[in-house]
């Protein structure tokens, strides 16, 4: 298993894995598979080459098995913040530590940007595995957004979490 930052050459595999994520876990994402499936490959490439995004992939057996992104805020008054997006590990590769390795890569990237003071994310209420992973990485809950996502007739709440990228709890040199 290895982690690397994705680039335009990974666009097709990235698209496939994200469409799988939207399809299998629609409550976890604000975009739908229907919305994203019609996006041209160039849209996916731009996500991987944008200076405002850093997207990491976990590879297992030569396949893209997991992904996570970090979106940097372009607005002057909010440049101290970044947002985690698109965290997903394919079901067949779960329980192998890929999620933790992806978050470690993401936080390591964040620490290369000293202007960052806040990393934020949302996680669907009830997704205990993801919530616990984020806690393990130093994120703390600061709010709950009711009815944040609607899938069919069902509504799902989102837990809002944040961490400081330079806090001791986000250092991967020490066990937590």
Automatic annotation (TrEMBL):
GO terms for molecular function: acyltransferase activity, transferring groups other than amino-acyl groups. Residues 1-168 form the N-acetyltransferase domain. The keyword NADP does not apply. Keywords: Transferase. InterPro entries: Acyl_CoA_acyltransferase, GNAT_dom. This is GNAT family N-acetyltransferase. It comes from Pseudomonas fluorescens.
